[in-house]
Each structure stands twice: as structure tokens, then as C-alpha cells.
Design brief:
- By secondary structure, the chain is mainly α.
- The chain has 19 helices and 6 strands.
- Helix 5 crosses helix 6 and helix 7 runs parallel beside helix 12.
Length: 455
């Protein structure tokens, strides 16, 4: 083993093995070679190059090995020329017809679209799985009232299932965004140097259309020497938005798992160790990892936006960035999704603690309900706010039960009976609308995903 090899986490720790294979040097070179052979095949069909050349060019594409290309690149200092030289040598005299009328960016930009398409075929099912799991959790906890918090402080009665419904709604928007971005990013170009078919003219347009159709890509109708990078930037932004929602989800889990709150716990294996020093620790490391990786993904957006601005018909400043950008954003997002799915599939929800926490402030969480009911009695909304605030602050300062503080106030007793007050302190009274909206959202999700979520 070479112990001095750089240990980049995406090489061994983060992301699906299949994704690592997609962005491996072997697959990238094989994809370049495949494009060269498809173009040659198309050109032969149209009579531009000899038909006899196709068999040899295809064979050379299948036989090319990364180490050969790397060795040739050391000599010529150009990765695509290195590939063409290796293929040409293998194809013998027919090698002269490889890369006919093309420029390097034709191959590399088209390959980038193919790699993205392959990567999305792994990412998208996980996005949908996570979305379905959110829908199921929203429905599962549609009857469980909980504390709603604003500024980290107990605010009002909330619905535990609604927490998952909000994330579900975000994910449905992300799937819409991704579908729209795919329409614009899954394109290739085979229009030659500076992008206007100067080498092959109108025949080049026909070749481009037919070859890209064989490769399963649309045409970038207008390009410079490269496909304009606003397309790629849109995809990177979309993937980063998904990452940020996963971060927000993970942050919610982390907060709810805090010892003082204790409403949920992410999965913790039987032999798992939380701390080398404190044997009792059960840390939310899956959620923390999701949040940490999001910081990297959001940073990649800046690089993608910078790559839009290139000199004239092209320069090379985007190339080095994209060698890092694409594998990192896909592998790190995949890692986030894997962990988020694992959390949802194995999440421990502490129902008793959730209901107990409602009463942590000794009833103060019902202040708005009392205020609005008092106002509806003709007391006046602003006047009711002032009175209830005065009683609430007294209860808070003196650690009193809010219900008892209300019942001891003569002004309250003039308008509200003890029975009315008692009914207003029922958490289930306030979750009807949220329950209805959860069911409505799940119906929308089923239509968008094209599958039944609730059995």
C-alpha cells in the first residue's frame, strides 16, 4: 500500500462507489473515446470518412487504457490530444480519421453532459426516496402536537408531522428545479473550433445532430468553443439548494436531539462509540456530517458562477475548476442523501418527551390562544394583548402556572369561565388545519412523484 497517497475523502469515504466509478479516470477516458467513435460512425454513415475506418476506430475506443493516455499526455501536455494519439496508433492507418473536424471541447463538453446524466441516474432515485420518507413521516405524526419554536424559544403549539411536511414541500420544489435544469444542462456540442462549424460547414451541423442523438443528448444550439457555463452553474446551484435543505433538516434533528430537548434521536448502532473520553455520549454525527458537507457544496456555487465569465470564445480557466467541481458536488451530495435517508428510516421519536415539552413553560405557550379568545368576547385585540402579556410576564417572572395566573385575575374571570380556559389549554385544539394541509401536500407529492405514498 502507498501510505503517501493523498487521502481525499471522496476517494474512499464519501459517496456511492458507483459515483466514484463514473468520475474515475477510466470512465472519463472511455467516455471521451466513445464520443470519438460515435462521431466517426456518424461521419462514415454520411460519407465523410471511409466506412472501413469505423470498425478500427470503435475497437481502439474500447481498448484504450488510462495509463497509456497519461503517459502520452506527459509528452504532449494535452489530455485530449494524448487520447487521440493513443487511439490513432491502435487504429493503424484508419487513425487519421479520428477527431475529424472536432475540437477538444466538443469531446470534453459532450462528455461532461454524459457524466452528469450518469451521476443524476444515481442521485435522483435517492432524492425521491428521501422525499417519500418525508411524506410518510409527515403522515405518521399528523396527530402529534408539539412545541413550535421561534428564535429558539417556545412560541406556539405546532404539529410534529408539519415539520416533515415543510421539508417535503422544499424537496418537491427541488425536484422541479432539477428537472428544469436537466433540460438545459444535458446538452452537447460538436460544432468545432469557436463553435460555428468552420471545419465541416453545413455537413457539420448534420453530424452534430445525428451523433448527439445517438448519445442521448440535446444540442447546445449556440455555443462558442465551449457550451456556455450558465447551464452548468444552474445545475450546481440547484444541487447546492438541495444540499442546504438537507443541512436545514439535519440542523433540526441536531437541535431536537439536544439533551435539554430530547425529542428525537438519530440512529446509534449497538457497538457505536460516541466519545473516546466520555463513554455515555450518543452524538448526532450523521446530522453534523450533513451540515458540514453543505458548507463545501455552497462554496462550490461561487466557482460555478465564476466559470461563466470566460475570455472571448473560450479560455481554460474553467477547466481546472470543473475537474474538482463535478466529482465533489455529486459525491458529497450523495453522501448527504445517504445519511439523511438513514436518519429518517431509523429516527427515534420520543412522543412522551414531545408532549412533556409542551408544558415546559407551565402553559405560557397558550398565550395567543387566550388572547384571541378574550378579544373575540368583545374585549378588543390590543387591549387583550396588553392584559395577557402582563399576566404572562408575572407568571414567567414568579415561575407560576399560567392557567392559575389567569384564573386568579379578576379581569379575566369577568370574560372567561374556568371551563373555557381549561378547553383553551388543550393542544389538540390547534392542529386541525395543519393535519388537513399535510394530507393535501401528500396528494400533490404522489402526483409529482407518480407513485402511491400512503397505502
Amino acid at each position: 500500500m502507498n501510505h503517501y497517497k493523498v487521502a481525499h475523502p471522496i476517494d474512499y469515504r464519501y459517496g456511492d462507489k458507483k459515483l466514484r466509478e463514473i468520475f474515475s479516470l477510466d470512465n472519463i477516458i472511455k467516455t471521451y473515446a466513445k464520443i470519438e467513435s460515435v462521431v466517426a460512425e456518424t461521419q462514415a454513415e454520411l460519407g465523410l470518412i471511409p466506412k472501413d475506418a469505423v470498425e478500427f476506430i470503435k475497437k481502439s475506443a474500447m481498448e484504450v487504457r488510462p495509463e497509456e493516455v497519461i503517459e502520452e499526455e506527459k509528452r504532449v501536455n494535452h489530455d485530449l490530444v494524448a487520447l487521440v494519439n493513443v487511439m490513432a496508433k491502435k487504429a493503424g492507418r484508419w487513425g487519421e480519421y479520428i477527431h475529424w473536424g472536432l475540437t477538444s471541447s466538443d469531446v470534453k463538453d459532450t462528455a461532461m453532459a454524459l457524466l452528469i446524466k450518469q451521476a443524476l441516474s444515481i442521485i435522483e432515485p435517492k432524492l425521491k426516496k428521501f422525499t417519500v420518507l418525508l411524506a410518510k413521516k409527515a403522515y405518521e405524526f399528523r396527530d402529534l402536537p408539539c412545541v413550535g419554536r421561534t428564535h429558539g424559544i417556545h412560541a406556539n403549539i405546532y404539529l410534529f408531522g408539519h415539520k416533515f411536511a415543510v421539508f417535503l414541500d422544499e424537496m418537491l420544489r427541488h425536484l422541479d428545479r432539477l428537472n428544469a435544469a436537466k433540460e438545459r444542462v444535458l446538452v452537447g456540442k460538436l460544432s468545432g473550433a469557436v463553435g460555428i462549424h468552420t471545419a465541416l460547414g453545413e455537413m457539420g451541423e448534420v453530424i452534430e445532430e445525428k451523433a448527439l442523438q445517438k448519445l442521448g443528448l440535446k444540442i447546445s444550439e449556440i455555443s462558442t468553443q465551449i457550451v456556455p457555463r450558465d447551464r452548468l452553474a444552474e445545475l450546481i446551484i440547484t444541487l447546492s439548494l438541495i444540499s442546504s435543505t438537507l443541512d436545514r433538516f439535519a440542523t433540526e434533528i441536531r437541535n431536537l436531539q439536544r439533551t435539554e430537548i430530547g425529542e428525537v434521536e438519530e440512529p446509534f448502532r449497538k457497538e457505536q462509540v460516541g466519545s473516546s473520553a466520555m463513554p455515555h455520549k450518543r452524538n448526532p454525527i450523521l446530522s453534523e456530517s450533513i451540515s458540514g458537507l453543505s458548507r463545501i457544496l455552497r462554496g462550490l456555487v461561487t466557482a460555478a458562477l465564476e466559470n461563466i465569465i470566460l475570455w472571448h470564445e473560450r479560455d481554460l480557466s474553467n477547466s481546472s475548476t470543473e475537474r474538482v467541481l463535478l466529482p465533489e458536488i455529486f459525491l458529497l451530495l450523495d453522501e448527504q442523501l445517504n445519511k439523511a435517508i438513514r436518519i429518517l428510516e431509523n429516527l427515534s421519536v420520543k412522543r412522551d418527551k414531545i408532549l412533556q415539552n409542551i408544558w415546559y413553560t407551565r402553559g405560557l405557550i397558550f398565550s395567543e390562544a387566550i388572547m384571541m379568545h378574550l378579544a373575540s368576547k368583545g374585549y378588543g385585540r390590543q387591549k387583550a394583548h396588553s392584559l395577557i402579556r402582563k399576566i404572562a410576564m408575572k407568571a414567567y417572572t414568579n415561575n407560576l402556572d399560567f392557567k392559575e395566573a389567569l384564573l386568579s385575575n379578576s379581569e379575566i374571570r369577568r370574560f372567561l369561565s374556568p371551563k373555557e380556559i381549561e378547553e383553551l389549554f388543550n393542544p389538540n385544539r390547534y392542529i386541525k388545519v395543519a393535519k388537513k394541509r399535510i394530507k393535501k401536500l401528500i396528494n400533490i407529492a404522489e402526483k409529482k412523484l407518480g407513485e402511491k405514498i400512503l397505502s
